[in-house]
Amino acid sequence: MSTVREEQLNLEIPASDVSSRWQKLINWFQPKASQPLYDRMLFTVAMALLAFGFVMVTSASLPTAERLTGNPFYFAIRHGIYIVISLAVMLATLRVPTNSWNQQSGKLLLLGLIMLLMVLVVGHEVNGAQRWIKVGPITFQAAEVAKLFFCIYMASYLSRREDEVREATKGFIKPLALLFIAAVLLLMQPDFGTVVVLSATTVAMLFLAGARLWQFFAVFITCVLALILLIIVEPYRMQRLLTFLEPEKDPFGAGYQLMQSLIAFGQGQFSGAGLGNSIQKLQYLPEAHTDFIMAVVAEELGFLGVLAVIATVLMLVSRALIIGRRCLMQEQRYGGYLAYGIGIWFSIQAFVNIGVASGALPTKGLTLPLVSYGGNSLIISALAVGLLLRIDHERRMLGRKVAPRGGAE
């Protein structure tokens, strides 16, 4: 008995070793000045979302892919290819100095607006919405590109005209005029969800730049009135609002998708039915692997899974905001405002996507960044993460008083 007891004692891990391992893990996420100059927490969280998205897209898309193509892994393979392309884009972005984006911000904004205009002329229509431009086998969504380019321009504008934004009304109005042009082009597609995300991001960036409080009240009232008008003039928007308020009145018509999503949330309960065991993805829930992927997460992984996804997205957003604040403290105004803009954009889009799937918001066609199926959204989101990593790299290099190199370490 004594020999067995000694062997058990030898198998126990000393408390000092456990503490040392935790300290090593903390040091890896928060490296000291002598360690590699990039935000490991941001990179790890982004990779975790990409990996989780691949698993959930594979699980959610199997029945649909089998029905449409005869290959149950059709969408999973395509999503894997999109992830590889996204990682390549992210690495390429790390090689580009942020000042290059700043210098080309005006041209990029113009390119984004031209692409939105092209959608209306030569756009490819899917499910009644003309939002895509098709060039041979490649189809891309101009709105995704426009969101990023608008953020890049806004960061450049605020870094150059910060005093004008704070002291003069015209400094506040100028970007809103450009936002109005972009919103009109988006509403003609129609793409109301992108208008909401773009508008909220722009106004939030102006607020962080120090615009006056009364201006926000004026913009808020204007947006509310415009929202009411847009709902009244378009019957399908009024139908969506009524369906959102009482989906059970038409469970097999306009309220079908929301009802199926709510059923998925209810069936998941606390710990879920298990990965791959969703019933709603078996031809009951439309768009299960795209806009409503959180419903499948809720059914298969339960409340714990949904909570983990929300916490991970919040970690990504918080790192972006922390990078933005640190850049502004070091007088890197362009990088700071761009990091703020990307963080706000991700948070609003994730909030809308999860809110729609859970029935808290009316239906909008927005993906969950880095998780949902969709090449355009995935690539642009990865590019935005690459920008964040590059901004943080340059900030750390400046903190060391060393000129930034061509790529992040």
What attributes does this structure have?
409 residues, three-stranded antiparallel beta sheet, 72% helix
Explain how this protein is built.
This protein is mainly α. The protein has one domain. It is 72% helix and 3% strand. The chain is built from 16 helices and three strands. The protein has helices at 2-11, 15-29, 40-69, 74-94, 98-103, 105-122, 142-160, 162-167, 169-187, 192-208, 213-233, 235-245, 256-268, 293-329, 333-357, 375-399, and strands at 124-126, 129-135, 138-141. It has a three-stranded antiparallel sheet. The chain is globular and about 55 Å long. The N and C termini lie far apart (55 Å). The model is unreliable at 4-11 and 402-409 (pLDDT under 50).
Query: What integer is the average pLDDT?
Result: 83
Count of helices?
A: 16
Radius of gyration: 23 Å
Helix content: over 70%
| Share of β-strand residues | under 5%
Largest sheet: 3 strands, antiparallel
Count of separate structural domains: 1
Sheet/helix structural class? mainly alpha
Unreliable sequence segments: 4-11, 402-409
Our measurement of the CA-to-CA distance between the termini, rounded to an integer number of angstroms, reads: 55 Å
The count of DSSP E runs of length 2 or more, i.e. the number of strands, is 3
Report the principal-axis shape: globular
- In order across it, which strands form the biggest sheet? 1-2-3
Give the SSE string.
Answer: HHHHHHEEEHHHHHHHHHH
GO biological process, one term: FtsZ-dependent cytokinesis
InterPro entries: Cell_cycle_FtsW-rel_CS, FtsW, FtsW/RodA
GO molecular function, one term: lipid-linked peptidoglycan transporter activity
Pathway: Cell wall biogenesis; peptidoglycan biosynthesis
